[in-house]
Design a protein that fits this description.
The complex is a heterodimer of chains A (412) and B (143).
Chain A (H helix, E strand, L loop, with lengths): L6 E2 L10 H7 L1 H4 L11 H21 L6 E4 L2 H15 L12 E5 L4 H12 L3 E5 L9 H7 L4 E5 L13 H11 L2 E5 L18 E5 L10 E5 L28 H39 L3 E3 L10 E6 L4 H7 L3 E2 L1 E2 L12 H5 L4 H5 L1 E5 L6 H19 L3 H8 L12
Parallel strand pairs in A: 1-11, 3-4, 3-5, 5-6, 6-7
Antiparallel strand pairs in A: 2-8, 7-8, 9-10, 10-13, 12-13
Chain B lengths: L4 H8 L10 H5 L4 E8 L4 E9 L5 E9 L2 H14 L4 H5 L3 H8 L6 H21 L14
Antiparallel strand pairs in B: 1-2, 2-3
Helix pairs in contact in B: 1-3, 3-6, 5-6
The chains are: A alpha/beta (412), B alpha+beta (143).
Bound molecules: pyridoxal-5'-phosphate.
Amino acid sequence: MAPKLPIYMDNAATGRCDPRVVEAMLPYFTEKYGNSSSRNHKFGWEGEEGVETAREQAAALIGANAKEIIWTSGATEGNNLAIKGAAHMYAKAPEGQPNRGHIITAVHEHKAVLDPCKRLQREGFEVTFLEPKADGIITAAMVKAAMRPDTILVSIMWANNEIGTINEVPEIGKLCHEREVIFHTDATQWVGKMPTDVERDNIDLLSWSGHKIYGPKGVGALYVRRRKPRVRLEAIFDGGGHERGMRSGTLNVTGIVGFGKACELCKAEMDRDGERLLKLRRKLETELAKRIEVTQVNGHADKRLPNIANISFGFVEGESLLMGIKDIACSSGSACTSASLEPSYVLKSLGVGDELAHSSLRLSLGRWTTEEEVDYAIEKITKAVHHLRQMSPLFDLYKEGVDISKIEWQTH
Amino acid sequence: MAYSDKVIEHYQNPRNVGSFGSSKEVQTRTDVGVGIVGAPECGDVMQLHIKVSPQGIIEDAKFKCFGCGSAIASSSLATEWIKGKSVDEALSIKNTQIVEELSLPPVKIHCSVLAEDSIRTAIEDWKKKNGIASTTQATAAAH
Ligand SMILES: Cc1ncc(COP(=O)(O)O)c(C=O)c1O
């Protein structure tokens, strides 16, 4: 059966809000619209009840206590609050002085981690940006080797948003706890898809976002450990002192209710969704590799999320490939698809050559992806790659046996 | 990014895709000029082959392109425009004309520059092979 077009395969960017989530949110727009901080009327109590139920649901998804959940506007804010908040709280020297402490992160983190770290660098903190090997994974051994006596914070994402690779987070957490270093993980792509337990996995700070777990956009949560150790953060927003003083501002009650519901659904359906998506992702990868020569799946073969496939098709440029599969919504690591003229820095960090980075597609599956859609994508991508290779000068050179990397190109 | 209808049309039905032989074969053919510009790591490579009569008329042109849709359309259009022209007429084609014809947005102007470069480079190659003095500057504008 032909699937309904266009097909959505960009779930790592954002996803559909589950209708059950929307339903849970609706009363909070028009009926239960009170400010959850209003303590002296029914409207306020209803709002508070919605928020606190959601807090329980969010905490349950990651094995935390509800008191350890701080509401945010998304993972960008969660990362900023965790990283800047911890650095400023645990700084070894006051503002304006050098040697304020050492932070460890990795080069292929999301910009919402990299940019706060770079700002801290300008503020007198030292930052080590770990570099992965070709498999894209950050190991506990890498973090251990970078640790210093003045290390105050480690921030390593759980799963990468472009290639889906899974870092050694529980092991890194254990190491941090042994050394009494605060450990933050950007778990935006992980939580809701994979089992998470902040106790077992040794996590102090964990950020995630509603719109990546079939919830609404513009709402997220930050887990802040309360005991062993009790983690403190310097707030970014000054104001009414909401959220234990860590995040002032009237709560987005409607969004939070939706976030909570989305967490509850993920907890219940994670195993089934994950198994199904892993089968579909494997089919996509193996069938494409079977049909198209010089195809490379980027990142570790197995240590990857079930829903993200990042594949390079040699000798064709990613943006032109997207044009050829315009019924399939997905993204590319090609420079042409980004605001900068650089190809994906994530793929580059794995040592994927610029040329193969330009040739990459990220296909990310989700709760509503069907096998028919995957079959359609396989056919369509195969056709488009062949169409483009037939006009690719690089493919000709490859066929002639010429080593493209040895040619002196007129770079510009 | 939204493409103009003309870019989409060239992408779907590129004109004059092909070559006049392998990279080795065309090196020794004096009736063929070869222009290869761009670089794989930059995300675009254009290859233009022109077949030129002894009188300096471009009798045929073929392209291959690794690049985005706008790059493909620019090179496809370039082959259409230069076929039947004298080399001097072909050299007068400006990238701005390509921009206009294909309604390229500012971020895609470099595609048109590459197409202009490929014409120039192919003609230079033909001239060199035939002992004709160059009339243009050897290198195109930086981009
Ligand atoms: C790994 C990762 N971190 C952070 C973010 C930012 O999340 P948000 O859009 O909720 O701010 C994203 C989403 O783009 C992500 O994939």
